C-alpha cells in the first residue's frame, strides 16, 4: 500500500474535501496547492500523477491530530507517551 493509497483512504473515511486537507496541512505550516493535492489522488498511470512522499503524509497525520484533538497546550506536537 502506497502513501497515496493511505491518503485516499483517510480522505474517504473522514469525509474530507481537498480544501479541508489543505487547511489541515496548514495547521503544521505545510503548504500545498489544490493542483498538487489533486495530482496525489490521480491513478498511478495518469500523466499528472505524483507520488505522495513520506514528509507530506507525516505532516498530514500531524495536522490531523491537531484538527481532531486541538493544539497541545505547550504548542508542540505530541509524541507517544
Structurally, how many domains make up the residues? 1
Give unreliable regions as ranges.
Answer: none
Mean pLDDT: 91
Q: Helix count?
A: 4
Share in helix:
40-55%
Number of strands: 0
Indicate the proportion of strand residues: under 5%
Question: How big is the Rg?
Answer: 13 Å
**Could you give a short account of the major beta sheet?**
none
Name the helix and strand elements from N-terminus to C-terminus, one letter apiece.
HHHH
What global shape is seen?
Answer: elongated
Structural class: mainly alpha
N-to-C CA distance = 28 Å
Describe the structure.
The chain has one domain. It is elongated. Helix 2 crosses helix 4. The mean pLDDT is 91. It starts with a helix and ends in a 12-residue tail after the last helix. The protein is built from 4 helices and no strands. It is 53% helix and 0% strand. With 81 residues, it is mainly alpha-helical.
Considering the chains and any ligands shown, give keywords for the structure.
about 80 residues; YehS-like; 4 helices; mainly alpha
Strand and helix layout:
Blueprint: H1 3-13, H2 18-26, H3 34-40, H4 54-69
Helix pairs in contact: 2-4
Amino acid at each position: 500500500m502506497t502513501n497515496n493509497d493511505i491518503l485516499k483512504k483517510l480522505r474517504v473515511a473522514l469525509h474530507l474535501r481537498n480544501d479541508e486537507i489543505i487547511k489541515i496541512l496548514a495547521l503544521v505550516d505545510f503548504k500545498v496547492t489544490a493542483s498538487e493535492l489533486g495530482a496525489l489522488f490521480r491513478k498511478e498511470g495518469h500523466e499528472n500523477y505524483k507520488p505522495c512522499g513520506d514528509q507530506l503524509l507525516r505532516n498530514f497525520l500531524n495536522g490531523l491530530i491537531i484538527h481532531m484533538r486541538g493544539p497541545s497546550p505547550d504548542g508542540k506536537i505530541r509524541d507517544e507517551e
